[in-house]
Amino acid sequence: MKALSVHLTDVCNSKCNFCIVDSPHMSADTIVRARVSRFLRENAGQGYEAVNLHGGEATIRKDFLEILDEIKELGYPTVYLQTNGRKLALMKFAEEVVARNVTLFIVSMHGATAQTQDRISLARGSFDQAVKGIRNIKLLGQKVRTNSVVSKDNYTEMPDIVDLCVTHGADHINISALHTSGTALRNFWDVTPRYDEIQPYVLEAVDRAVARNTTVTLEGFPYCSVPGYERYMIDWETNQFKMLYRTFVLDDYEHYMDAFTRVKDARCRGCAHNAKCGGVYKEYAELVGWDEFQPVVTVPDGEQTCA
């Protein structure tokens, strides 16, 4: 899929303790509507299959519906919306968004209970609103992909988060490794778990989704941290995003991530997955180190094992 990706706002109605764009510490928005409109106009008619909108929380922009109208008028086939789902708890608002050609809703679900999710988001009621938002979108006949970021606060709940999301109609479950940037870097030791600690819970979560015939993907994990489950990693070769992030245009988002946010150790050169794996988030490597990562080698019978 070839898509545009637009960072619509720096601010959010939640204050997640691992926010990659550091929304909890943004005192004002840096996003100018004219820059967004120019980016959309410049790329219209260039074969992009969708426009992916995100933030912060895109839905809290006062001109959010107007931006959706603009995208539709420019002829883009569809819109994907990354959201915490809170405003979608209002059916009238959900209906207005769906009417403006949003067909995929990527909803953040970071807890299996209100206690966990509201603690992470520092927003009381955010869990209940997200669940209701998912229900509303499914009632309106649209697709929901949930995204769950694995942190110290929730990693033991990952299998239960999957069960919750599937029960409420999620079509696709995505589980993301914590990107140690923004607010997550400020709170590094409070929010960042080790990969070897979270591994059994992440793999069980994948198994739960598979058992319930639900599409599941993993994002941002070093391949050696999910042994035997590498096939669930998102294939970025077939999902290409050109992104407007604040004032910067990233022609290939995943290439940028590999080049500037993740690193590899010398041992990675001997790994069977070196060509596809993006490595480890650089802040994690600097602060935690490499002791838990071992290259995967292919043995003569074709099976793979850690060195």
UniProtKB/TrEMBL annotation:
It comes from the Bacteria. Keywords: Iron, Iron-sulfur, Metal-binding, S-adenosyl-L-methionine. Residues 1-222 form the Radical SAM core domain. InterPro entries: Aldolase_TIM, Radical_SAM_PqqE_MftC-like, rSAM, rSAM_sf. The keyword Metal-binding applies. Gene3D superfamilies: Aldolase class I. Pfam families: Radical_SAM. One of its GO terms (molecular function) is metal ion binding. PANTHER family: PQQA PEPTIDE CYCLASE (PTHR11228:SF7), RADICAL SAM DOMAIN PROTEIN (PTHR11228). This is Radical SAM core domain-containing protein. It comes from Virgisporangium aurantiacum.
